[in-house]
Amino acid sequence: MIKKGMRRQIVLHYILVVFVALLLVEVIFLLAIRTYYYDSVYSKITTHISTAEEFLKYEISGERSPNQLQKVLDFFSMDYTELEVLSTSGDILTSSTGFQPDRTITTSDVPEAVGGSIGRWVGRQAGTNESVMAVSKLIQVSSRDKYVIRYLTSMERIDKDLLNLTLASIGIGAAVMVIVVLFSFGLANSIVKPLNNITAVSAQMAKGRFTARIKGNYRYEIGDLASTLNYMADEIIRSNQIKDDFISSISHELRTPLTSIKGWSETLISGGYDPEETKLGMGIISKESDRLIGLVEEILDFSKLQQNEMKLSIVLMDIKVVLQETILNIWAKAEKKRIHLVLECEDTIYIKGDPNRLKQVFLNLVDNAVKFSPEDSSIVLSAQRLSASEMAVIVRDSGIGISEAHLSRVRDRFFQVDALNGGTGLGLAISQQIVELHNGKLEMDSELGKGTQVTVILPLTEERPTAPALPENGYE
């Protein structure tokens, strides 16, 4: 007995489907053969009746004669078939066997013949219980005399042949079912064995052994499943590695400012420093505190985005004003590397968005451009209409660029092209999600050694400010 499971279900369902199909085919085949044989007998008798009737018209005169019934027997007699001549009421008048039993035929073929058609009846002969077919036809012998001729033929030989054919069909069907059972076991094993292997490897993965792999060249959906699980394990390993790198990186990022803050705090507490040194120390503490706040806020923003908890304050805004503020915020950092910031923007391009969040996006993009651009270079920040429904903000630099291998992953969370430059690896991931919350797209195009271009595509709005004048920050 097969134990419960997919193998058992496949075998049973396959056997059931084939068995039902085979049963239907055999039943239809046997019924068709039986109908063919029975119809052949019926057709032969009716053809003989038609032929005999043609001769009867010329051989028997219109007058009644003593040997009239005998002539009917002679004309309509048929080998291996009993012929009975009946009255229209079903009484037997004579028969080809010479016996004239005093009885009335009550089978359905006689009323059908009297009604004008050729009657047919198949059943068991009374007394002998023999399988027979009766075919009856009303004939006009003279202007006054009508008889029902009734042929009675045994169907025992045909039924025996049909029985043998049935037994042969059952034997063939049984042989087919044996082959089907063997084939179904093979089919079930070809499906279940790979699944058992996949299940075993998946159990190892569930225990944290992500180096385990599903081996075997499986085809179709099972092959796709195996490839997907192997790919999932690779991605988990990669994600874990990125997470570990992130923890290491963020630990370093947090330790550096904390070390500076702690060192200068202890130094200032000890006292004995002039105002200039004290001012320098307090400046470093303030700067490193801001850096810590920035790191923590970046992590919090990413957490909110992952949990769909970030809320946008959507207002009608002029994108040019946001870009101007972005340049002002990043100008000091660019000035240290003698990088020239260029703003190219039409006079007014209005969109609906959260100015603070979009400013966060543009600051991140320009900050990255400054970070990876050489000294005495330029960064262009431009805004332009693409169509009646879209506009684009483009950040273009001539920095070190990004390799093709890294370009597809640079927007992944925790991923850093150059870990030595610091950061959490969350900036671009956060920026992309903020842009998507504005129903926009963030696209990147870069070539190693030639620079990078980042394009933020946002939907335009037809609305315009209704107030007499915009506030100084350019937002409503």
UniProtKB/TrEMBL annotation:
It is an enzyme of class 2 (transferase). It is found in: Cell membrane. InterPro entries: HAMP_dom (IPR003660), HATPase_C_sf (IPR036890), HATPase_dom (IPR003594), His_kinase_dom (IPR005467), HisK_dim/P_dom (IPR003661), HisK_dim/P_sf (IPR036097), Sig_transdc_His_kin-like_C (IPR004358). The keyword Chloroplast does not apply. Its EC number is 2.7.13.3. Residues 189-241 form the HAMP domain. It is a multi-pass membrane protein. Keywords: ATP-binding, Cell membrane, Kinase, Membrane, Nucleotide-binding, Phosphoprotein, Transferase, Transmembrane, Transmembrane helix, Two-component regulatory system. It catalyses: ATP + protein L-histidine = ADP + protein N-phospho-L-histidine. GO terms for molecular function: protein histidine kinase activity. SMART domains: HAMP, HATPase_c, HisKA. The keyword tRNA processing does not apply. The chain crosses the membrane at residues 12-33, 162-188. Gene3D superfamilies: 1.10.287.130, 6.10.340.10, Histidine kinase-like ATPase, C-terminal domain (3.30.565.10). Residues 249-462 form the Histidine kinase domain. This is histidine kinase. It comes from Paenibacillus auburnensis.
